[in-house]
Amino acid sequence: MAFHVSKLTLRFPKPISFSLRPVSGTKHPQINLTLTDLACAVSRRSLHSVVRQASENRSANSRLLKSKPSKYSWAVSTATRLENFSAASKSFSLQSASPPNSKSWFRSYKIALSVLGLSTGAIAALHTSALLAMSAETVNLDSDRTDWQEAKSLLLSASLEKRREFYRVDHLPLEKVPVWTSTGTSTDQPRHEISDALSQKISLFRGDITKLEIDAIVNAANKTLLGGGGVDGAIHRGAGPLLRKECATLGGCETGEAKITGAYGLPAKHVIHTVGPIVFGGVSDKEKDALRDCYLNSLKTAVQNELRTVAFPCISTGVYGYPPEEAVEVALATVRKYLDEHHEQLDRIIFCVFLKSDADLYQRNLPLYFPQAQSADQSESPTDGQDPL
Ligand code: APR
Q: What pTM was computed for the model?
């Protein structure tokens, strides 16, 4: 299908901008590109990454297309034609890698590079928009025959509104999860200083972790990562079969380690799977260190993936038998220590409890690790106590 360039205005030195829409008027999101932005963005490195992204999307498109021809094939075939064009213009611009110093040559080199960036950027945009446009027709999160990588890349590049079409459970937006505020009733001596930087970053939420619409929920998994009962079972049920398909490629997970996947039918964008220690009888230093590592490695994984809102269940306190009154101290001490050093990289940590007993435990212990300014007649300011780590 031919494209109609609806508006091309040369406004030097202002950027050249144009919008593309199909002649037949088929409804299709307009693609507005500012040439100068593309020209500026088009360095060799970004060019390769843009071309790579375009060809990744193209292969995803062609796989999707093979599975079910769609009315959006015009986008893919046009993108492929543009790609051939850009390959031609790329060879022109790269052939003249060491330009003579004539002014006229430099101007044509710049124009060639801009055209190259323009066509490459248009390809990436076309492939992405075609991928998104095909989403409603070809991505089935209930079927384990769907390609999990295509589904994952589609969901991660979709808008929030688009992603909500795929949720398999109810969702609770972050703004509906209040920041924790101390009730001021704790009589124990706080173990940390009051920190204004942290006071807006902690939430205590009692409910189902699978509903939280945030960057990542942490799963209390087992070493196989292939699902189980408890919160693990709830997360796999909510995500659908593609979560297990991706988990099966990870080669399991050791106790204390953390591995990240997509979240598929869940409102969260990612699931960070961690395996807690199994406790028989008393808690040894080994189990305490392993539980600390679950929280620490999950937070490190979130920050490495630039995720800013994370929810933890009460890891190991169910089937794995870790005494909740001891686990809460390890959890809060680890999160407090990590936030002291990385609070700019995280916006919210949600302690998601399921049982009333756990809610009471966290309510009692949070003021010790995240003390908040209290009115004058409350206890005096805290001094540094000994963490249980
Ligand atoms: N949302 C939030 N928390 C939940 C949910 C839920 N939907 N379901 C259970 N929980 C709570 C439990 O009440 C408990 O406090 O999660 C905590 C952890 O309990 P488990 O899920 O039993 O996890 P764990 O003790 O770490 O044992 C892990 O159990 O489910 C299997 O496959 C899992 O083998 C692994 C083992």
A: 0.69
